[in-house]
Amino acid sequence: MTSLTEAVRRSAMVCILTVPATMTSHDLMKLLAPFNDVTEHMKIIRDSTPNQYMVLLKFCSQGASLPVMELTELPKCTVCLERMDESVNGILTTLCNHSFHSQCLQRWDDATTTRLKPTGLTALCASRCPVCRYCQTPEPVEENKCFECGVQENLWICLICGHIGCGRYVSRHAHKHFEETQHTYAMQLTNHRVWDYAGDNYVHRLVASKTDGKMVQYECEGDTCHAEKIDALQLEYSYLLTSQLESQRIYWENKIVHLEKETTEEMNNMKVKFKETLERCDNLERRSGEMGKEKQAMEKKCTQLQTRVSKLSQELKEEQEMNRCLRANQTQLQSQLAEEERKGKETGE
Q: Can you give the residue ranges of every domain in the chain?
């Protein structure tokens, strides 16, 4: 790494560590088009990290720098058929070690239709090599995570049911899935290696290439791969495939039986609940009829009480009127009596 504080000569190489997979090589060249005159070389680099890749840039105006490892320079550009020497600027080297002029590759603009799995939809891949048709930028994939704890590192997928769990050095959910279901084989998502839990060892016969990450066949050394060994390998894989298919069949049959059992129990519970609901409806209807009869009786009784109240109110008014008349008569009689007493006193004198 070149120091930014010390007075040392800076390197002419720059590495873009993270380029999103949605940006194709054409988009990258369009982004760096203003710097084609000072760019000597570009190289695309990919690792196992999903949804991104790296780009190594070498400029021609910042002094000497380290050479690009594993670089194969073609004598001629495949697009324009012109020679590419050290004086040519703006060379792009793809993952398949094919080199082109950046401007030529921009004008190529080859969009190839690619079928996406498992959706079956089609998409355009505009970053294929004009020579070998290898797609340079990775296709965006969904980020996987453990079904139990949700971590996204050291993941293993079961080859029987597709369960994704973390490794034994994280939370051991993949191994716990094996203990629960006895599904023996799981594949690591980063390097596609297959692990046998029963044999406690890897069982894959394919290895990944260190240059482009493609799966290649593992070659035997010398003349040891005879017909007997090939037949033994065929028998081994036939047995492996048969046993796993049988295990997968048993697993899904058990799952179907379990679902049927759950469905039957659910239906029985629903029937019981439906019967209880009908009984409650009948009880409510019966109670509603009784309440209707009680309502009619109460209305009749209320009508009788209202009639009686009206009669008593009328009698009360008559009594009050009679009482007022009697009090008026009493007052008049008292005044007459007082007048007669006064006259009697005057006559006696």
A: 13-125, 143-219, 235-292
Using alpha carbons, select from 45, 49, 96 the residue that is nearest to residue 74. 96
User: What is the value of pTM for the model shown?
Assistant: 0.32
Nearest residue to 67 (alpha-carbon basis) of 75, 78, 56, 76 = 56
Nearest to 146 by CA among 199, 186, 184: 186
Measuring CA to CA, how many Å separate 243 from each of 197, 203, 248? 14, 14, 8
CATH topology of domain 143-219: Herpes Virus-1 (3.30.40)
- Contact in structure between 160 and 186 (CB atoms under 8 Å): no
Question: Per-residue pLDDT tens for 51-72?
Answer: 788 888 888 765 434 344 444 4
Residue type, 27: D
Pairing, β 122-125 against β 99-101: unpaired
Exposure string for 61-72, b = 16+ CB within 10 A, e = fewer: ebeebeeeeeee
End-to-end CA distance of the chain: 153
Half-sphere exposure of 89 (CA within 13 A, CB side): 11
